[in-house]
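step 3/5: co-fold with adenosine-5'-triphosphate
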Amino acid sequence: MPTSAGRFYICAMTKVGILGGGQLGRMLLQAAANYPVETYLMENDAGCPAAHLCHHFISGDIKNFDDVYQFGKGLDAITIEIESVNEAALEKLESEGVRIYPKPAALKTIKNKILQKQFYKDNEVPTADFLITQNINELTNNSSFLPAVHKLATGGFDGRGVQVIETKDDISKGFDAPAVLEKMVKIKKEIAVIIAVSDTGDTAMYPAVDMIFDNRLNLLEYQVSPAVLPEKILWKVEAIAGKVVRDLQSAGIFAIELFVDHNDNVYVNETAPRVHNSGHHTIEANFSSQFDMLWRVMLGYPLGSTEHILPAAIVNLLGAEGYSGEAVYEGLNEILQIENVFVHIYGKKETRPGRKMGHITILSKEKQELVHQANRIKNTVRVIT
Ligand SMILES: Nc1ncnc2c1ncn2[C@@H]1O[C@H](COP(=O)(O)OP(=O)(O)OP(=O)(O)O)[C@@H](O)[C@H]1O
Ligand SMILES: [Mg+2]
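step 4/5: write tokens
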């Protein structure tokens, strides 16, 4: 910008890039508006949920080395909203001085479920026993390991890439590609914990949340924060989650999903090295949201407070069964009349069965009110065409 003296101001804004333009990128960019940051976004679809919120949209393939490398050159920092990015390009950018959240080495470990499980084992982090399978025939050879859960090493998300193999009869449902075969855990509760790690090693842990799943789609149905857990289990959960991020040795934000079994053993299910669906309530329910927190990490500010202002529940809005096409949101009028309810529509033009189209957050001191309103929302709002 020219000054009256004809000189130019030097723009001191930090340049940060985001790989991926889905709802996580969208909510991250909503939080960016509060900070002195110039945002860059790469995604191949200019109509993606996050595109209109960034300063600079770059069309490109986040899995392609050249696209990611060209995107990142000249940026101060980069983060991801999905694991399936070209980590070789991120490694090169890191070696050239771009700060990457999470570190490419941590991303590499996490994005391949075989390496991720091996990492837990090597670091003595409790996790369900597992075998590595290269093809479907190896399931037949290991049928004594059943009942188990088969998980594709790479490329699975939102329940796709996970198959329950109860008995030999289910083996045909397994994956004919490198995968992990994990002992079935008798799950009492699924819990998630989000932890932020700064460049200087400071950490901030959000209260654990209870995740309640839709067993058919394997997709999160609703969650309540903070989780209701006996103190002893909560300690285990926090100790294990803390160890996972220490061992990953990376700044950034991490979501650790855990199982509590019927004997109160706690196992890590998986870790995501990024903002996560289990932290969406933090936008309204906690002093610093997971998105705000990641900006603090990337811009070198002090970490925010993870304390909750009020307990919360979230309901995911999933595309209704039997509807594919331009999305219509039924029931929002009724839900928007409730004073402690916050609607987030992700701006995806097309709905498909099970597609994450938005989420709704409910705040209340009363646990019963949270569950009541969560059910009301689930029975009232439908994403159809
Ligand atoms: N070893 C196990 N024993 C019992 N249930 C399991 C096991 N592993 C996974 N599940 C069930 O399957 C769900 C999905 O598994 P996982 O989290 O590994 O897959 P995902 O595709 O990465 O899911 P998402 O991306 O939605 O988090 C879990 O939340 C849990 O309900
Ligand atoms: Mg999961």
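step 5/5: annotate
The CA atoms of residues 19 and 80 lie 5 Å apart.
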